[in-house]
Design goal:
The structure holds two protein chains of two kinds. By secondary structure, chain A is mainly alpha-helical. Helix content of chain A is 77%, strand content 1%. Chain A has helices at residues 2-19, 26-49, 58-76, 80-102, 107-127, 129-132, 149-172, 174-184, 186-191, 196-222, 227-230, 234-246, 252-271, 278-290, 294-304, and strands at residues 138-139, 224-225. Chain A has a two-stranded antiparallel ribbon with strand order 1-2. In chain A, helix 2 (26-49) crosses helix 13, helix 3 crosses helix 10 (196-222) and helix 12 runs parallel beside helix 15 (294-304). The mean pLDDT of chain A is 84. By secondary structure, chain B is mainly α. Chain B has a single domain (2-10, 26-305), classed as ABC transporter involved in vitamin B12 uptake, BtuC, CATH 1.10.3470. Chain B has helices at residues 2-23, 25-51, 59-77, 81-107, 112-134, 162-181, 183-193, 195-200, 205-230, 239-252, 257-275, 284-305; strands at residues 149-152, 155-158. Chain B has a two-stranded antiparallel ribbon. In chain B, a hairpin with a 2-residue loop joins strand 1 (149-152) and strand 2. In chain B, helix 2 packs antiparallel against helix 9 (205-230), helix 4 runs antiparallel to helix 9 (205-230) and helix 10 (239-252) packs across helix 11. The radius of gyration of chain B is 20 Å and the shape is globular. Chain B starts with a helix and ends with a helix. In chain B, 48% of the residues are buried. The model of chain B has no long low-confidence stretch (mean pLDDT 83). The A-B interface holds A 49, 52, 54, 56, 101-102, 104-109, 111-113, 115-116, 119-120, 123-124, 126-127, 237, 240-241, 244, 272, 274-278, 280-285, 288-289, 292 and B 55, 103, 106-107, 110, 112-114, 116-118, 120-133, 135-136, 235, 243, 246-247, 250, 282-283, 285-286, 289, 292-293, 296-297, 300-301, 304.
């Protein structure tokens, strides 16, 4: 019964989200798109976190996806819609290769290396002047779907829906058990027959692919990118803060956090043009110190009346 | 083990140094100067990592904050940064103490994940607070003595930056004396090796952590003060140093403070090697990432075999 209500609520939310363009103007739709992009990134970051690995490389894979998509259109003359697919696959393939190396690392070594990856991609694209346009970046001949705001909204919503679907699958399938076991104790997971490396590689590749996909959607929706905007550290920072605030190790938590912080940041951006991100820093620190399970954890605790 | 490795690295470096010295001396000179800066920023971080076992991802941001403080002090009073570093170091020590008591200490028992995210949050907090207070405009104070140079034959180069080499060496020697000769230092070393054992024999672990954290903050604050003589400052100026410092520490091995000197020389010289050619100049930044990845991966694979 309870599960049915949940599915109904999810379906209602999906219909509402799909119907939003009928009610909203261009600016709110734009805000909604940025919230959805961050939401997808937050959820995908959390999916890897469920295995206990903290990636600081969201911006790297996001930027990689956007550059792959832009360059496929510009250099290979590919159709924008096709480039989305191929850029997504490319990011996935590259993440799979990188995963072989970086997933042998743990804890701080893994995190710092993923942070470094974003910088490497940025520097490479910065320096390959002829191929990637160098520091000036690339300008696409046009925006996908002729720049129709509604179509762009639905495209972004589609990306988000895929991410949420995969995340939901992660929570319900055998993967969930394997990743949780790895997070709790690698040694006992291994002795129970969990192939740690394989599961981490699956999780890393899939989450990276999703991040690349969102990057590709982003670049096709705006029509230009530069190394500095594609690999902007905010694409790492904001999803992280959102997932933490909402509550990690779940799909719902990062979603709630993204809605709250995404809308709050639009408002703050207008109030404080410089340094409104200070709020994100404060949120990260306070959440880690005071409520490590986030808002969802807090709500769950209240409902069950015991520690989550 | 650490000593043997240090010697091998030193020997390999020595050979490379002689080769480069003959062929292109400026690469070596500027490389050493850069190494001085890298090492003196990385050493305090290494101290925290070695004893408190916390990766402080806000390390470069501590330095950035100290640079802004020095900037304000120098602008207001006309003081020289080398004089201002005393009050600045005192302030950053107090700041480090406050940060430790308010945040780090609460996360010591938490999983490593929480510690990493916590210090990452602190880094953002400091960068954005600087953005808020000073905007992202770059600031710079010029000093005459910075442009001091020396001519040897046809070779002419700036010598001011050798100050950083001196600072780095002084830090290594000073910390070595502190950790091996004084009671507090020995206690800190014991806590770093085994906190529980140290607590059993009556060392106040919490106090030691606070002390080490404040000491490291004072050192990095001092570097922040000196840093403004050499470079203009902006809110994001510290963040590359956080990563570089971590890389240097990982290369040397956690707890091997003299090793940081050697790895800094390797990084500084190879960066300046690429900067020496027009075609590869833009790629100099990538050296460090190649180093970090080979070193960290090499270390993890070797660690698996052992």
């Amino acid at each position: 019964m309870k599960r049915n209500t949940l599915y109904l609520a999810a379906a209602a939310a999906a219909v509402l989200a799909a119907a939003l363009p009928a009610f909203l103007g261009a600016y709110p739709l734009n805000v909604a798109r940025s919230v959805m992009t961050y939401m997808a990134l937050a959820v995908s970051w959390d999916m890897l976190l469920r295995s206990g690995q903290i990636s600081f490389g969201i911006a790297g894979l996001f930027g990689l996806g956007s550059y792959a998509s832009a360059l496929l259109v510009l250099r290979a003359g590919m159709d924008p819609a096709m480039s989305l697919v191929f850029a997504t696959l490319f990011t996935g393939a590259l993440a799979f290769t990188i995963g072989f190396a970086v997933l042998r690392l743990r804890a701080m070594y893994f995190s710092i290396t993923t942070l470094a990856l974003a910088e490497i991609f940025r520097i490479v694209l910065h320096n390959l002047h002829d191929f990637s346009g160098g520091p000036e970046g690339v300008v696409l001949p046009g925006v996908i779907f002729g720049g129709d705001t509604r179509a762009l909204y639905w495209l972004c919503l589609g990306g988000l829906a895929i991410t949420l679907g995969v995340s939901w699958y992660f929570e319900k399938s055998k993967l969930h058990l394997a990743l949780t076991a790895i997070r709790n104790d690698e040694t006992s997971a291994r002795s129970s027959g969990v192939d740690i490396f394989r599961y981490l590689l699956i999780a890393f590749t899939i989450t990276s692919t999703l991040q690349g996909m969102m990057g590709a959607i982003q670049v096709q929706s705006y029509g230009f990118t530069t190394p500095e905007t594609a690999f902007d550290a905010n694409f790492t920072l904001l999803p992280l803060a959102m997932a933490l605030l909402g509550g990690i190790h779940s799909t719902l938590g990062p979603m709630a956090g993204a809605v709250l912080l995404g809308i709050a940041s639009e408002w703050l951006k207008l109030k404080i043009p410089y340094g409104h991100l200070v709020v994100y820093g404060i949120i990260i620190v306070l959440v880690i110190l005071l409520m490590p399970r986030g808002l969802v954890g807090l709500a769950r605790k209240r409902r069950t009346g015991r520690g989550a | 083990m650490a000593n043997k490795r240090n010697w091998t690295v030193a020997l390999a470096l020595g050979a490379a140094v002689i080769g480069i010295l003959v062929w292109r001396p400026t690469v070596l000179i500027y490389g050493l100067q850069a190494a001085g800066i890298y090492a003196s920023i990385a050493i305090p971080m290494g101290l925290i990592l070695g004893i408190v076992h916390i990766v402080n991802l806000a390390h470069g941001e501590f330095m950035m904050a100290a640079s802004y403080l020095t900037y304000m002090v120098c602008r207001a009073t006309g003081m020289d940064p080398f004089l201002a570093l005393v009050p600045v170091a005192a302030v950053t020590a107090a700041f480090g103490f406050g940060i430790y008591k308010l945040t780090i200490r609460q996360a010591l028992k938490a999983p490593e994940l929480n510690q990493l995210i916590l210090t990452f949050g602190l880094a953002i907090l400091l960068t954005q607070a600087a953005n808020l207070a000073f905007t992202s405009q770059t600031r710079k104070i010029s000093f005459d003595y910075v442009s001091a140079s020396v001519d040897i034959g046809e070779l002419s180069f700036g010598i001011y930056n050798f100050v950083f080499v001196a600072i780095a060496v002084a830090m290594v020697v000073g910390l070595r004396l502190f950790l091996t000769r004084t009671t507090t230092g020995k206690a800190a070393l014991a806590v770093g090796q085994n906190p529980r054992g140290a607590a059993i024999v009556g060392i106040d672990v919490d106090r030691t952590y606070a002390l080490v954290f404040s000491l490291a903050s004072a050192l990095v604050g001092m570097m922040g003060a000196v840093f403004i003589t050499r470079s203009s400052i902006f809110p994001a100026v510290g963040s590359p140093f956080t990563m570089k410092s971590f890389c240097l520490i990982a290369m040397a091995g956690v707890g091997n403070i003299p090793g940081i000197l050697a790895s800094s020389v390797l990084l500084g010289v190879s960066e300046n090697f690429l900067k020496a050619f027009r075609g590869t100049r833009g790629w100099a930044d990538i050296v460090f990432f190649v180093l970090i990845i080979t070193v960290i991966l090499g270390r993890s694979i070797r660690g698996k075999k052992a």
